[in-house]
Specification:
With 286 residues, this protein is α/β, with parallel strands linked by helices. The chain has two domains: 160 residues; 115 residues, 3-Layer(aba) Sandwich (Rossmann fold). It is built from 13 helices and five strands. The protein has a five-stranded parallel beta sheet, sandwiched between helices. Helix 12 links the parallel strand 4 and strand 5. Helix 1 runs antiparallel to helix 2, helix 1 runs parallel beside helix 3 and helix 2 packs antiparallel against helix 6. The longest helix is centred in the first third of the chain and has 30 residues. The model has no long low-confidence stretch (mean pLDDT 82).
Protein backbone atom coordinates (compact mmCIF):
# COMPACT_ATOMS: atom_id res chain seq x y z
CA UNK A 1 0.00 0.00 0.00
CA UNK A 2 2.79 2.39 0.85
CA UNK A 3 4.08 2.16 -2.74
CA UNK A 4 0.72 3.42 -4.02
CA UNK A 5 0.74 6.28 -1.53
CA UNK A 6 4.25 7.21 -2.65
CA UNK A 7 3.08 7.13 -6.27
CA UNK A 8 0.23 9.47 -5.35
CA UNK A 9 2.71 11.88 -3.77
CA UNK A 10 4.73 11.76 -7.00
CA UNK A 11 1.62 12.56 -9.08
CA UNK A 12 0.58 15.40 -6.77
CA UNK A 13 4.09 16.84 -7.02
CA UNK A 14 3.97 16.69 -10.85
CA UNK A 15 0.57 18.46 -10.87
CA UNK A 16 1.94 21.13 -8.54
CA UNK A 17 4.87 21.71 -10.92
CA UNK A 18 2.67 21.78 -14.04
CA UNK A 19 0.37 24.43 -12.55
CA UNK A 20 3.31 26.54 -11.38
CA UNK A 21 5.06 26.41 -14.77
CA UNK A 22 1.80 27.19 -16.57
CA UNK A 23 1.27 30.18 -14.29
CA UNK A 24 4.62 31.56 -15.44
CA UNK A 25 3.69 31.02 -19.09
CA UNK A 26 0.36 32.85 -18.80
CA UNK A 27 1.65 35.56 -16.48
CA UNK A 28 0.18 38.28 -18.74
CA UNK A 29 -3.28 36.95 -17.93
CA UNK A 30 -3.21 37.96 -14.27
CA UNK A 31 -6.42 36.22 -13.18
CA UNK A 32 -5.61 32.95 -14.95
CA UNK A 33 -2.01 32.98 -13.71
CA UNK A 34 -3.11 33.57 -10.10
CA UNK A 35 -5.66 30.78 -10.45
CA UNK A 36 -2.94 28.37 -11.60
CA UNK A 37 -0.67 29.36 -8.72
CA UNK A 38 -3.56 28.73 -6.34
CA UNK A 39 -4.04 25.25 -7.84
CA UNK A 40 -0.33 24.62 -7.44
CA UNK A 41 -0.53 25.60 -3.78
CA UNK A 42 -3.59 23.40 -3.27
CA UNK A 43 -1.81 20.41 -4.83
CA UNK A 44 0.84 20.82 -2.14
CA UNK A 45 -1.92 20.28 0.42
CA UNK A 46 -2.95 17.10 -1.37
CA UNK A 47 0.66 15.93 -1.29
CA UNK A 48 0.69 16.63 2.45
CA UNK A 49 -2.33 14.37 2.91
CA UNK A 50 -0.52 11.53 1.15
CA UNK A 51 2.60 12.22 3.23
CA UNK A 52 0.61 12.08 6.48
CA UNK A 53 -0.99 8.81 5.38
CA UNK A 54 2.47 7.42 4.60
CA UNK A 55 3.63 8.35 8.11
CA UNK A 56 0.54 6.69 9.60
CA UNK A 57 1.23 3.47 7.68
CA UNK A 58 4.79 3.35 8.99
CA UNK A 59 3.51 3.52 12.58
CA UNK A 60 0.84 0.83 12.15
CA UNK A 61 1.52 -2.68 13.41
CA UNK A 62 -1.09 -4.03 11.01
CA UNK A 63 -2.01 -2.07 7.88
CA UNK A 64 -5.66 -2.43 6.72
CA UNK A 65 -6.25 -4.49 3.59
CA UNK A 66 -6.26 -2.41 0.43
CA UNK A 67 -9.45 -3.19 -1.48
CA UNK A 68 -8.28 -1.99 -4.89
CA UNK A 69 -5.22 -2.72 -7.01
CA UNK A 70 -3.36 -0.22 -9.17
CA UNK A 71 -1.33 -1.97 -11.87
CA UNK A 72 1.41 -0.49 -14.03
CA UNK A 73 -0.92 -0.09 -17.01
CA UNK A 74 -3.38 2.00 -14.97
CA UNK A 75 -0.58 4.16 -13.62
CA UNK A 76 0.78 4.79 -17.12
CA UNK A 77 -2.69 5.72 -18.42
CA UNK A 78 -3.19 8.17 -15.55
CA UNK A 79 0.24 9.69 -16.10
CA UNK A 80 -0.23 10.14 -19.88
CA UNK A 81 -1.96 13.58 -19.68
CA UNK A 82 0.85 14.75 -17.37
CA UNK A 83 3.45 13.64 -19.91
CA UNK A 84 1.58 15.28 -22.80
CA UNK A 85 1.22 18.68 -21.17
CA UNK A 86 4.78 18.62 -19.82
CA UNK A 87 5.95 18.04 -23.41
CA UNK A 88 3.88 20.98 -24.68
CA UNK A 89 5.17 23.20 -21.90
CA UNK A 90 8.75 22.17 -22.66
CA UNK A 91 8.27 22.89 -26.38
CA UNK A 92 6.62 26.24 -25.71
CA UNK A 93 3.33 25.39 -27.45
CA UNK A 94 0.90 24.94 -24.57
CA UNK A 95 -2.40 26.84 -24.87
CA UNK A 96 -4.95 27.89 -22.30
CA UNK A 97 -7.33 25.26 -23.70
CA UNK A 98 -4.61 22.62 -23.15
CA UNK A 99 -4.31 23.65 -19.51
CA UNK A 100 -8.08 23.58 -18.94
CA UNK A 101 -8.29 20.17 -20.59
CA UNK A 102 -5.48 18.87 -18.38
CA UNK A 103 -7.18 20.17 -15.22
CA UNK A 104 -10.46 18.44 -15.96
CA UNK A 105 -8.88 15.25 -17.34
CA UNK A 106 -6.67 14.92 -14.28
CA UNK A 107 -9.51 15.57 -11.83
CA UNK A 108 -11.73 13.00 -13.60
CA UNK A 109 -9.07 10.28 -13.80
CA UNK A 110 -8.74 7.28 -11.51
CA UNK A 111 -5.98 9.31 -9.80
CA UNK A 112 -8.75 11.27 -8.09
CA UNK A 113 -10.69 8.12 -7.10
CA UNK A 114 -7.61 6.37 -5.71
CA UNK A 115 -6.71 9.46 -3.74
CA UNK A 116 -10.22 9.68 -2.28
CA UNK A 117 -10.11 6.03 -1.31
CA UNK A 118 -6.82 6.54 0.53
CA UNK A 119 -8.22 9.58 2.34
CA UNK A 120 -11.41 7.77 3.34
CA UNK A 121 -9.42 4.78 4.59
CA UNK A 122 -7.02 6.77 6.76
CA UNK A 123 -8.98 9.88 7.71
CA UNK A 124 -9.10 8.81 11.35
CA UNK A 125 -5.40 8.01 11.74
CA UNK A 126 -4.23 11.61 12.14
CA UNK A 127 -5.98 14.78 13.29
CA UNK A 128 -3.84 16.69 10.78
CA UNK A 129 -5.50 14.96 7.84
CA UNK A 130 -9.02 16.28 8.48
CA UNK A 131 -8.43 20.03 7.99
CA UNK A 132 -6.28 19.32 4.94
CA UNK A 133 -9.01 17.14 3.42
CA UNK A 134 -11.44 20.04 3.81
CA UNK A 135 -9.18 22.05 1.53
CA UNK A 136 -9.49 19.44 -1.19
CA UNK A 137 -13.15 20.37 -1.70
CA UNK A 138 -12.11 24.02 -1.84
CA UNK A 139 -9.72 23.00 -4.64
CA UNK A 140 -12.71 21.81 -6.69
CA UNK A 141 -14.63 24.98 -5.86
CA UNK A 142 -11.81 27.20 -7.09
CA UNK A 143 -11.84 25.35 -10.43
CA UNK A 144 -15.60 25.75 -10.71
CA UNK A 145 -15.48 29.48 -9.97
CA UNK A 146 -12.95 30.21 -12.69
CA UNK A 147 -14.55 28.01 -15.33
CA UNK A 148 -17.90 29.72 -14.71
CA UNK A 149 -16.27 32.82 -16.22
CA UNK A 150 -15.72 30.95 -19.51
CA UNK A 151 -19.24 30.03 -20.72
CA UNK A 152 -17.84 28.99 -24.12
CA UNK A 153 -16.09 26.00 -22.50
CA UNK A 154 -19.23 23.84 -22.64
CA UNK A 155 -17.42 20.48 -22.74
CA UNK A 156 -15.37 21.50 -19.71
CA UNK A 157 -18.54 22.45 -17.80
CA UNK A 158 -20.08 19.06 -18.55
CA UNK A 159 -16.97 17.23 -17.34
CA UNK A 160 -16.80 19.35 -14.19
CA UNK A 161 -20.37 18.49 -13.21
CA UNK A 162 -19.37 14.82 -13.03
CA UNK A 163 -16.81 15.42 -10.30
CA UNK A 164 -18.14 14.05 -7.02
CA UNK A 165 -17.66 16.07 -3.84
CA UNK A 166 -14.53 15.22 -1.90
CA UNK A 167 -15.72 16.74 1.33
CA UNK A 168 -19.02 18.13 2.56
CA UNK A 169 -18.37 21.22 4.64
CA UNK A 170 -19.43 21.23 8.28
CA UNK A 171 -20.54 24.57 9.71
CA UNK A 172 -21.21 25.36 13.38
CA UNK A 173 -23.63 28.11 14.42
CA UNK A 174 -23.44 29.19 18.07
CA UNK A 175 -26.05 31.57 19.47
CA UNK A 176 -28.36 31.51 22.48
CA UNK A 177 -31.26 32.69 20.29
CA UNK A 178 -33.09 29.80 18.64
CA UNK A 179 -34.58 32.21 16.10
CA UNK A 180 -31.14 33.43 14.98
CA UNK A 181 -29.79 29.87 14.81
CA UNK A 182 -32.76 28.90 12.63
CA UNK A 183 -32.30 31.92 10.35
CA UNK A 184 -28.56 31.43 9.91
CA UNK A 185 -29.12 27.72 9.26
CA UNK A 186 -31.48 28.57 6.40
CA UNK A 187 -29.13 31.17 4.95
CA UNK A 188 -26.14 28.83 5.00
CA UNK A 189 -27.74 25.45 4.27
CA UNK A 190 -26.35 25.35 0.73
CA UNK A 191 -22.80 25.68 2.07
CA UNK A 192 -22.75 22.34 3.90
CA UNK A 193 -24.03 20.44 6.93
CA UNK A 194 -25.17 22.76 9.73
CA UNK A 195 -24.71 21.98 13.44
CA UNK A 196 -25.62 24.35 16.26
CA UNK A 197 -24.96 25.07 19.91
CA UNK A 198 -26.54 27.60 22.28
CA UNK A 199 -23.42 28.48 24.28
CA UNK A 200 -19.65 28.38 24.05
CA UNK A 201 -19.29 25.38 26.35
CA UNK A 202 -21.47 23.20 24.15
CA UNK A 203 -19.63 24.51 21.08
CA UNK A 204 -16.32 23.28 22.54
CA UNK A 205 -17.84 19.84 23.02
CA UNK A 206 -19.05 19.82 19.41
CA UNK A 207 -15.65 20.83 18.06
CA UNK A 208 -13.96 17.98 19.92
CA UNK A 209 -15.81 15.47 17.76
CA UNK A 210 -15.90 17.11 14.33
CA UNK A 211 -13.94 19.47 12.09
CA UNK A 212 -15.88 22.64 11.25
CA UNK A 213 -14.75 24.65 8.24
CA UNK A 214 -16.63 27.72 9.50
CA UNK A 215 -17.94 28.76 12.91
CA UNK A 216 -20.47 31.60 13.28
CA UNK A 217 -20.37 32.71 16.91
CA UNK A 218 -22.39 35.05 19.13
CA UNK A 219 -20.59 36.85 21.98
CA UNK A 220 -22.98 37.23 24.91
CA UNK A 221 -24.23 33.75 25.87
CA UNK A 222 -24.86 31.81 29.10
CA UNK A 223 -22.29 29.37 30.59
CA UNK A 224 -19.52 30.52 28.25
CA UNK A 225 -19.34 33.63 26.09
CA UNK A 226 -18.10 33.63 22.51
CA UNK A 227 -14.86 35.34 23.46
CA UNK A 228 -14.19 32.91 26.33
CA UNK A 229 -14.91 30.08 23.90
CA UNK A 230 -12.38 31.50 21.45
CA UNK A 231 -9.67 31.85 24.12
CA UNK A 232 -10.09 28.18 25.04
CA UNK A 233 -10.62 26.80 21.55
CA UNK A 234 -7.63 28.52 19.94
CA UNK A 235 -5.35 26.51 22.25
CA UNK A 236 -6.70 23.29 20.74
CA UNK A 237 -7.41 24.47 17.18
CA UNK A 238 -4.67 26.91 16.08
CA UNK A 239 -6.29 27.70 12.73
CA UNK A 240 -9.63 28.66 14.31
CA UNK A 241 -8.76 32.31 13.71
CA UNK A 242 -9.22 31.70 9.97
CA UNK A 243 -12.52 29.85 10.40
CA UNK A 244 -14.55 31.95 12.84
CA UNK A 245 -17.01 34.78 12.26
CA UNK A 246 -18.32 36.64 15.30
CA UNK A 247 -21.89 37.78 14.71
CA UNK A 248 -23.07 39.76 17.69
CA UNK A 249 -25.09 42.71 18.92
CA UNK A 250 -22.40 43.29 21.56
CA UNK A 251 -20.66 46.16 19.77
CA UNK A 252 -18.90 47.73 22.76
CA UNK A 253 -15.34 48.96 22.27
CA UNK A 254 -13.82 46.15 24.36
CA UNK A 255 -15.21 43.45 22.08
CA UNK A 256 -14.35 45.32 18.91
CA UNK A 257 -10.79 45.82 20.17
CA UNK A 258 -10.52 42.09 20.87
CA UNK A 259 -11.68 41.23 17.35
CA UNK A 260 -9.25 43.66 15.75
CA UNK A 261 -6.28 42.75 17.93
CA UNK A 262 -6.74 39.10 17.03
CA UNK A 263 -7.52 39.79 13.36
CA UNK A 264 -10.93 38.14 13.64
CA UNK A 265 -13.85 38.53 11.24
CA UNK A 266 -16.96 40.06 12.79
CA UNK A 267 -20.36 41.47 11.86
CA UNK A 268 -22.64 43.49 14.11
CA UNK A 269 -26.32 42.54 14.35
CA UNK A 270 -28.37 43.26 12.39
CA UNK A 271 -26.14 42.59 9.39
CA UNK A 272 -27.17 42.42 5.77
CA UNK A 273 -27.98 38.86 4.68
CA UNK A 274 -25.63 39.17 1.73
CA UNK A 275 -22.77 40.20 4.03
CA UNK A 276 -23.30 37.11 6.18
CA UNK A 277 -23.34 34.71 3.22
CA UNK A 278 -20.37 36.38 1.51
CA UNK A 279 -18.26 36.44 4.69
CA UNK A 280 -18.91 32.77 5.42
CA UNK A 281 -18.19 32.02 1.75
CA UNK A 282 -14.81 33.73 2.03
CA UNK A 283 -14.00 31.63 5.10
CA UNK A 284 -14.87 28.42 3.24
CA UNK A 285 -12.93 29.46 0.13
CA UNK A 286 -9.90 30.89 1.88
Amino acid sequence: MNSIVEWLMHIEEKAESIYERSADIFIDDKEFSEFLRQLSSEESYHKQVALDVSECIKKMEQVPDFKIAVDDETMKRIELPFIDIEKKIGEGRVTKADVFDFIITAELSEWNDIFLYIVDSFRGCSSKIIPIVAKIQQHKRSIERLIEQYPNLLSVHEKLRKLRPVWKENLLIVDDSEAIVALLSLLLENEGTIDHAYNGKKALEKMAGKYYSAVVMDVEMPLMSGIDFYKEAIKLYPNLQERILFYSSADDSKNISFFRENNLKYLIKPADIRDIIETVGKILNR
